[in-house]
Amino acid sequence: MAQVKICGLSQPAHVAAAVEAGARYLGFVFFAESPRAVTPGRARALGAEVPPGVARVGLFVDPDDALLQAVLAEAHLDLIQLHGAESPGRVADVKALTGLPVMKAVGLSAPEDLPALTDYGLVADLLLVDAKPPKDAVLPGGNGLAFDWRLLTGRRWLRPWLLAGGLTPANVAEAIRLTGARGVDVSSGVETAPGVKDSGMIRDFIAAAS
Ligand SMILES: O=C(O)c1ccccc1N[C@@H]1O[C@H](COP(=O)(O)O)[C@@H](O)[C@H]1O
């Protein structure tokens, strides 16, 4: 079974559905432009009853130190997800500042994008392999956009990695089969509208990834 991250949670019922179905990671978005953005206080409440073994992930896009410190002063997080244009040096700085492990998202659309996974593998604790967003996209992720999974065939990196980008209950099993991913991350693929999660889709996604 692949480990599953359900990202962009904002409602207790969806947190409960994800935990009961076996999610390994719960993602809370701290990026104001996202329809899934939550306040630190909301994330704290949503993560309060999460059992041991389920990691609370804070998703940030090019955060400054002040934002990281403000969120961590209130929300209890286990892992930081960096989903912007953070350099390898910035990843190392965020690890040192927060004292938390960092998962770095890397966008792929072509073979030329693959070396970044090696570079970030030197500093990040986990890698998140996502589709590269379109140039005019408001969000650098969470767009329901997939990439050509065959780019990953036969690849190995220094760190454990999760597959993301356009995954849904209908395609996640095939994505795992083609890429060999041991972890998958979904946001818009378990929603009925941007930012509106669906408990049934969350359960279906986790079952399909099993
Ligand atoms: O979910 C968001 O709103 C989001 C905002 C900014 C950056 C990343 C975001 N989500 C991450 O994007 C990928 C793919 O999402 P999707 O399943 O294609 O909708 C996933 O890793 C989310 O964590």
Description:
With 210 residues, the chain is α/β, with parallel strands linked by helices. Helices cover 31% and strands 21% of the residues. The protein has a single domain, classed as Aldolase class I (TIM Barrel), CATH 3.20.20.70. The protein has seven helices and ten strands. Strands 7-6-5-4-3-2-1-8 form an eight-stranded parallel beta sheet. Strands 9-10 form a two-stranded antiparallel ribbon. A hairpin with a 2-residue loop joins β9 (191-193) and β10. α1 (12-21) packs parallel to α7 (199-209). The chain is globular and about 40 Å long. The termini are close together. The protein binds ligand LGQLAAA5. The site of the ligand O=C(O)c1ccccc1N[C@@H]1O[C@H](COP(=O)(O)O)[C@@H](O)[C@H]1O has 28 residues, from β2, β6 and β8.
Q: What are the SSEs and their pairings?
A:
Blueprint: E1 3-6, H1 12-21, E2 25-29, H2 40-47, E3 55-60, H3 65-74, E4 79-82, H4 88-98, E5 102-108, H5 115-121, E6 126-131, E7 161-163, H6 172-179, E8 183-186, E9 191-193, E10 196-197, H7 199-209
Parallel strand pairs: 1-2, 1-8, 2-3, 3-4, 4-5, 5-6, 6-7
Antiparallel strand pairs: 9-10
Helix pairs in contact: 1-7
The structure holds the ligand O=C(O)c1ccccc1N[C@@H]1O[C@H](COP(=O)(O)O)[C@@H](O)[C@H]1O.
CATH superfamily: Aldolase class I
Q: Helices and strands: which structural class?
A: alpha/beta
Question: What order do the SSEs take from the amino end to the carboxyl end, as H and E?
Answer: EHEHEHEHEHEEHEEEH
State the distance separating the first and last CA atoms. 4 Å
Low-confidence stretches: none
| Rg computed from alpha carbons, rounded to a whole number of angstroms | 16 Å
CATH class: Alpha Beta
Fraction in helix? 25-40%
GO molecular function: phosphoribosylanthranilate isomerase activity
InterPro entries: PRAI_dom (IPR001240), TrpF_fam (IPR044643)
Protein name: N-(5'-phosphoribosyl)anthranilate isomerase
Keywords: Amino-acid biosynthesis, Aromatic amino acid biosynthesis, Isomerase, Tryptophan biosynthesis
